[in-house]
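SECTION: protein entry
WANTED: fold as tokens:
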Amino acid sequence: GQLRFVAAQPSRVLDTRIALGGWSPLHGSGQTLDVRAVPPEARAVTGTITLVAPLRPGFLKTYPCSAEPPTSSVNALTGDVLANGFTVGVGADGRVCVAAHAATHTLLDVTGWWVP
């Protein structure tokens, strides 16, 4: 069926710099964080993912926790700060996974979600 977008006040749900979302101090290389991002009735989330000063060139992936994609959501060189918009499906409980390819700080901001 079709989904309807629900715009939300932009909200940060993950910031490893200050342990927001339960993760600190760094998002480790090869580590996947499971983040409650949206209400349980949502089927997808739209927002911004930011890679903050990775320790080596790397990337982040955002995805429904059940299926890691072969593509990245944002890429950055050592020490860079780079953000990118994303829309991905979420689990039945409003959770989204974020995987890191290099140790970094990770920010996840939600701007809305998709409901039936």
Remarks:
- The chain is about 0% helix and 55% strand.
- The CA atoms of residues 16 and 23 lie 5 Å apart.
- The chain has a mean pLDDT of 96.
